[in-house]
Design a protein that fits this description.
10 strands; 11 helices; alpha/beta; 5-stranded parallel beta sheet; single chain; 3 domains; Rossmann fold
Length: 360
């Protein structure tokens, strides 16, 4: 069972509670079910561990009932600060209240919503909960990666500073030795040009010294140039361009999941919610890879794939299709149109990265 996050289910109806229990069965280790009779202290005690992300599920027949519970919860959190900012809220209500549910989600009260009655689509609700859970835990991992990244960058900056000091020291020493050797060669020249009455043999010996000193000077300068180049090459670079991946999907949850997987691994990510938006973004960027959902509104993935392949500058950009459709005919059509691979949603980080790294 997943112990990376906690789940809190707010409800009124026992019937709805049983539905959610069936969906969450054997899935999450830490779950609390709350109705109007739940002791406040019990809820606060459950929320003690603020380091763990939380998924709040508001399971009510009417959207108004969920709003009432949410208002109580928000007020309680204002007074006692019982949870951190690492949470998402899912509203589950009757289908007839979907317009109100959409309105509340668009305002930001809830992150997303699902409906039940007259039809219980258990798998759809289960999928939404799983995706939101993946997003929460991915965000938590991103925060951890960011902390590690800051520590590494700080260490690299320290190393870079130390190497800069070494480079400066080498440059100074190179100048000092250059001047000393130049003075020595000048003195040898004076000796050679002077009146050496002592013996011709001494003059011959002095003349032999000059080329040796000049050779040493050249060797000395070459050594300092080479060691300086090695030090400069060893200095960390902080301006390396990250590979750009364009992710095209009409589900915001999926966009966030993929983004939170790729960014900590060193990828730059652009997102689009349909094919038309993707083509517009491609006018201003050249990605190393496109992850393209098949089933989208406005302009679907197959139409977008055709359009991209017709653009000369983009025709060689690799494209991996994203789909929840297991119909092999769709995959075959995409292959024929130029897609190099496909990923069936929902996917996991290991599969996603394996397929991407095989291309980039």
């Amino acid at each position: 069972m997943d112990n990376l996050m906690s789940v809190v289910v707010f409800y009124h109806s026992i019937e709805i509670k049983k539905v959610i229990q069936e969906i969450l069965r054997n899935k999450y280790q830490s779950i609390l079910y709350c109705d109007v009779n739940t002791n406040q202290e019990q809820f606060i005690a459950f929320m003690t561990d603020k380091s763990q992300p939380v998924l709040f599920i508001y399971a009510f027949e009417k959207t108004e009932e969920a709003i009432e519970f949410n208002d109580i919860f928000v007020e309680l959190n204002k007074n006692k600060k019982i949870h951190s900012d690492k949470y998402l809220s899912l509203l589950i209500c009757c289908r007839e209240h979907r317009e109100a549910a959409y309105f509340e989600c668009s305002k930001g009260r809830f992150y997303s919503y699902e409906t039940f009655r007259p039809v219980y689509d258990m798998n759809r609700i289960r999928l939404s909960i799983t995706q939101m859970g993946d997003l929460l835990t991915s965000q938590d991992k991103v925060n951890s990666y960011q902390q590690d990244k800051k520590a590494v960058i700080k260490k690299l900056q320290s190393v870079s500073h130390q190497l800069h000091e070494v480079e400066t020291s080498l440059t100074d020493e190179k100048g000092i030795q250059h001047n000393l050797l130049t003075e020595l060669i000048s003195e040898v020249d004076q000796l050679c040009k002077g009146d050496m009455t002592e013996s011709a043999e001494v003059k011959v010996q002095v003349e032999k010294i000059k080329p040796r000193v000049e050779n040493f000077k050249a060797h000395n300068q070459k050594y300092f140039n080479e060691i300086g180049s090695k030090v400069r090459a060893a200095k960390p670079s902080f301006k390396k361009k990250m590979p750009l991946v364009l992710v095209v999907d009409d589900q915001n949850v999926m966009l966030k999941i993929i983004t939170t997987i790729l960014k900590p691994k060193g990828f730059d990510v652009e997102v689009a919610t349909n094919g038309a938006e993707a083509l517009n973004k491609l006018k201003n960027c050249q990605p190393e890879l496109v992850l393209l959902d098949i089933d989208m509104p406005v302009m679907d993935g197959i139409q977008t794939l055709k359009a991209i392949k017709e653009i000369n500058e983009l025709s060689q950009v690799p494209i991996i299709m994203l789909t929840s459709n297991t119909d092999k005919e769709s995959f075959i059509e995409c292959r024929e149109l130029g897609a190099i691979d496909y990923i069936v949603k929902p996917t996991n980080a290991e599969t996603l990265l394996k397929k991407i790294l095989a291309v980039i």
